[in-house]
Amino acid sequence: MAGDTPLMVVDGGGVLVQWSHQAEELWGRPAGEVVGRPATDLVSPVPAPGGGDVERCRHDGLRDVAVSATDGGLCVRPVLRDDGSVAWGIFLPSADGMVPGIDSAVLEALCAHMAGALFVVDEELHVVSANAAAQALSGVSAREMLGRPLTDAWPLASPDELEHILRQAMADGMSATEHVMRMTPKNDRQHTHTVSVLPLRDAPGAVVIVHDVTDQEKARRGVQALYAVRERVGQTLDVVATCEELVHALVPGFADIAVVEVVEPVVRGEEPPLSPLGRDVPLRRAAFANSGGDQQARAHPVGDVRALPFPTPYAQALADLKPRTIALGPDTPWLAADPARTEAIRASGARALLVTPLTLRGKVLGLLSLYRTQRSGGFDEKELALTQELATHTALSIDNARRYTREHTIAAALQRHLLPPALPSQTAIETADLYVADGRGAGGWSNACALPGARTALVVGEVAGHGIHTAVTMGQLRTAMQSLAALDLEPDEFLARLDDTMTRLACERRALPLGDPARSQRLSATCLCVLYDPFAHTCTIASAGHPPPVVAGPGTRVVELAAGGALGGGGGPPYATTAVTLADGEVLALYTTSLLSAARPEDGTGGTQALQRLLADIDRPLQDLCDDILYRLRIDALPGDAVLLLARTHSFPADRVATWPLDDEPTAPAVARRHARRRLADWGVDEDTAYDTQEVVSELVTNALRYGAPPVHLRLIKDRKLTCEVHDSGISAPRLRHARTVDEGGRGLFICAQLAQNWGIRYTNDGKTVWTEQALP
């Protein structure tokens, strides 16, 4: 404050006759208290440390300001008064190289015209000077402020933070600029300021410059909220997850509490209702977020479904589709209509509400409610417009998620209907299955097919992908599988035929119109086929890119299989088979890869090791074992359908099967008929069926002797159906002929086909077997 304006003027008698504004700021005493008093009441000479005269100015004990006269701390010059008398003026010295008066003019201009508040503090952080804006900011006069700690004079929400910044800046001698701080809430609104600290170079202390950026901060928060919503909302194709993304993007930056409620059918993927929304339409509370921690009061839990009470701003916003901002207070009239929300609003301290509908193309999807507490202030018109933009983006994201949910719900339903309702257990094998869908309509399936000769085919497969097209492909493969099973093929040939079917389906998909989305989806599937023969106690297994089965028993093990390419791979090596012998009571487990990734036994193992441990106790019923495995799955970690097929093997009852070797003699058909007649009588087979069976045996044995090669065997099996099998060592295939009237032969297979319910041929390494099946009453 150096310059040519005197701090004070003293007349010839030592009485103060003039006291400047700078002196008021420096000593903290107004002119009315000092003018007319002797100057010696304020200034008294005391010895300076080390010699020299020092003038010490006293300020009521609050502080001492010392300046050395010998060092040029104060300047004393004669001044001419208006009445012509001469007095003594006391001046602060000018800075080196500065024209007298410039320093003072600059400081005065800064203090008078600066838009922000300006404080000058000493090394103890006490206020030395404050401009008018600083006094308005603090709410006290300069006299009340001077000499007090800055953090005491200026009510901040975090005073310790400001003190740390001030001390750090003065210790380092480096400026600290644009620190954002908030004042203690005032007039139902919390103000935000930026603080810059400029350390003084030639004196201990600092200049603190404060600007009110409440409006700028609010605008910045709005832009950040808009960016966060556009960046985060809509990343998942799930309605509830989209709502959670919205509330977490808005809290705590834009609002203190956010609630999203969605029309209940929308969550299930159904079409949203047209506006206006009826009062009785239920809404589900899909998401809730707050800045008050987990203990924040809530009107209703997330997941609660109820209609909105009327009349309230919530119901009205869904009726007229207009957003609105509401000030909340004890006397707000509509609160009585919703006691639960009233209690939550009171407990949270909410003072402002912004409610906006989530609509798209005239259809109502839900409602967004934003709350601010006393510390954050209310919502203005700009924020209302911004919230409408956020609501539009969110509504579009929710509708996309709803459509996705609807498609996958249809896919899951289609897949469920394409799967067999129950796996039938056979005499020599009992089965149970576990099927856990991942909710997106994947392509996993399992099946157990009864084959002639008391044999059973077990199949587990998985089509790659999700959605309706995947479910349809799975259904097509299962249909083809059922048709191929009737051909009584070995597992390797069965997979080869299924691979041909997959290749044809892929060609049909590539021929779809260019605009069809299914055209670009690659078709691929894995499959595992197991054929169990209870008479040989063997399982013949072939794999098309599928994980190997696990055999659970006294020596639980994973079956090592020859590698085979996935279905639809095109032109891979031929599929190979592996034969495994099973003891009575052992359990064979077929599964999909998703089941392995979700298995979590207590010892923390994973993969097939986990499945082996889960199958340790195989003496329980198979369905109980499936349920126990289900309870140990991490359902949230499913990358696809978790499918498990368990099969416990048994020997076929010896009293329900009979085998006879036949001589290569013309009398063999008659001998075979006698064997069949006696055994059918022992089994209690009715006369009509027994007669038909004898005719079938006669024709099959005759054909084997005439067109096949010895040795010839006859086997009868009484299961759910009566099976007749004739095996010979020849490889020529018999065929069904339609003989003419004058022909003496050629009617054997035709007669068998007429008398039997089903017939076929099965080739083995040592020949062929011709079989028939007849229904039993």
Any key phrases for this structure?
5-stranded antiparallel sheet, 33 strands, 32% helix, alpha+beta, single chain
Q: What does this 3D model show about the protein?
A:
The chain is of the alpha+beta class and 777 residues long. 32% of the residues lie in helices and 27% in strands.
Short synopsis of the structure:
The chain is an alpha+beta fold. It has 21 helices and 33 strands. The protein is rod-shaped.
Number of beta-strand segments? 33
How do the strands line up in the largest sheet? 15-14-13-18-17-16
Secondary structure class reads alpha+beta
pLDDT averaged residue by residue = 80
By DSSP (H or I, 4+ residues per run), the number of helices equals 21
Strand content: 25-35%
Secondary-structure topology with pairs:
Elements (H helix, E strand, L loop, with lengths): L7 E3 L5 E4 L1 H7 L3 H4 L8 E5 L5 E7 L3 E6 L6 E6 L5 E6 L10 H12 L3 E5 L5 E4 L1 H7 L3 H4 L4 H4 L5 H14 L3 E7 L9 E8 L6 E7 L1 H19 L6 H12 L6 E7 H4 L15 E8 L14 E2 L6 H8 L3 E4 L11 H10 L1 E11 L2 E11 L7 H38 L10 E8 L6 E9 L3 E9 L4 H18 L5 H20 L14 E9 L4 E7 L5 E3 L4 E2 L19 E4 L5 E5 L1 H6 L8 H8 L7 H10 L10 E8 L7 E6 L5 H16 L3 H21 L4 E7 L2 E8 L19 H8 L2 E7 L2 E9 L2
Antiparallel strand pairs: 1-2, 1-7, 3-4, 4-5, 6-7, 8-9, 8-12, 10-11, 11-12, 13-14, 13-18, 14-15, 16-17, 17-18, 19-28, 20-21, 21-22, 22-23, 23-26, 24-25, 24-27, 27-28, 29-30, 30-31, 31-33, 32-33
Helix pairs in contact: 8-9, 8-13, 9-13, 13-14, 14-15, 19-20, 20-21
